[in-house]
UniProtKB/TrEMBL annotation:
The active site is at E358. It is an enzyme of class 3 (hydrolase). GO terms for molecular function: beta-N-acetylhexosaminidase activity. The keyword RNA-binding does not apply. Residues 40-74 are annotated as: Disordered. Residues 62-74 have a biased composition (Low complexity). Belongs to the glycosyl hydrolase 20 family. This is beta-N-acetylhexosaminidase. It catalyses: Hydrolysis of terminal non-reducing N-acetyl-D-hexosamine residues in N-acetyl-beta-D-hexosaminides. GO terms for cellular component: membrane.
Amino acid sequence: MRLLRPRPGPLRAPRSPGPRLLGALLLVAVAATGCLGGGGDAGSGGEQSRRPPVSSAPLGNVVPAPASVSPSGPGYTLAPGAAIRIDDRPAVRAVGDYLAAILRPSTGYRLPVTPGAGSDGIQLRLDPAQRALGAEGYRLTSSWTTVSVVAREPAGLFRGVQTLRQLLPAAVEKDTRQTGVWRVPGGTITDTPRYAYRGAMLDVARHFFTVDQVKRYIDQLALYKINKMHLHLTDDQGWRITIDSWPKLTTVGGATAVGGGKGGFYTKAQYRELVAYAASRHMDVIPEIGLPGHTAAALAAYPDLSCNGFRDPVHTGLDTGFSSLCVGKEKTYDFVDDVIRELAAMTPGEYLHIGGDEADSTSKKDYRIFMDRVREIVARHGKKVIAWHEITGAGADEKVTAQYWGTDRTEKGERKRVAEAVKKGTKLILSPADRVYLDMQYTYRHPLGLSWAGRIEVDRSYDWDPARYLEDDGIPDEAVLGVEAPIWTETLVNSAQLEQMAFPRLLGVAEKGWSGGGIPWAEYEPRLAAQAGRMSALGIAFHRSPTVAWPKN
Ligand code: TNX
């Protein structure tokens, strides 16, 4: 039993203390009766393989926290002969096949995905009449005979399936046969997201990550209901996406990386493959082309795009703010137009990210001229602009979404500019760097990561509320589209390192996005601890933060 109460987080009620608060209170109540935490998820993957996973987590012991949880009855036990019963529609079948692919290797059951009704097995159903479930909500009901997930949209079924996974013992995530009793606790979860935008950003420019590495990350994000994959495709140290009309961007600009190592880039076919893979996880890809700064790789390939025309090599250092496209040259806009046109054509999502940060070598006047033109180009190619919050100094309005990456130390004046844009209708994605920058070190002893925004342990990373984060600056919750956790890769070169930095902080960001910021750390911490076995079973070498009472192996 875990009655540990670490440093309590700010006990703020969510804006509308509706079902989500009830759910949270219920979990706290469950914790107080001793059912949550140590007695729940059977711990690490190692432990799972030594003894059969008989008891699964109590209903609701999942991340992100569901909006409402009503336990009842003993629940459902997956039988060897069970089927996954689906509505006969391709999008529902795809969710059924996805679930079957997770469950079959570990359970060893056949789990046929079968269209049509039935009163047993796992059921995945669409019900358009369930309007309150919205675009991503679902209702999961676990009874003696069935466990069913009902949603209005296929995306809701997919999110519900993530909850179902987490209600099964962690060993279900393994890719080899396990012996176990695959029980889902009884009752009903009704769940919808607090924010529509729940993102993660991966910097593939500072170091390149292959298609398979990105897919692995996408799969990990899906488990925690992230729905936007922001790919930071270009920077001073590398251009990673093929643009047919400017071929040297990748052949020259993609050839290296931070530290001068091997670079890489995605062909258009590979990029499309990533977009399709993300879509199969009900996730949009948001590609970012950094403009007008962060362009040394492009300028190395095409020196004409700079004002001085000198050919510099692709940058391999860590510094920023020294490169700029030449705002006064018409050729710059031909370039931007071609890039945006080709990128828009292979990106089905509604957004393109145009960077706009740290343009320290572009004058204020030029920055504004440039951003005005680029915004018009993006709109002409049928997409909406996202840019880092510096764009709010360049006449942002309702057509722009700004990604705020400030910290507790960000100057009032800068926040005021953001607030002014919000008054004109700009929406915000919140990525406070001293909370959710996953590339920041955990502690000064941690070997990976940077520290310019601070050292961020897991508890501090969770200690903020998107709805109130900028309220002192007059920015209301209504302006917040959602949250995003960026991971910059100056110091990170492989999946193990990425995962060490992202996990477990990413889970907290996912929860801010799905459940809102009103849940205290003391309630979250045991739920997070209970994810240890699942992350281990998935091969994620997460940071065993001392701020969390992880189960003993
Ligand atoms: C700031 S956040 C940057 C990036 C760096 C990152 C490292 C932002 C918009 N710019 O260029 O990679 O810090 O943490």
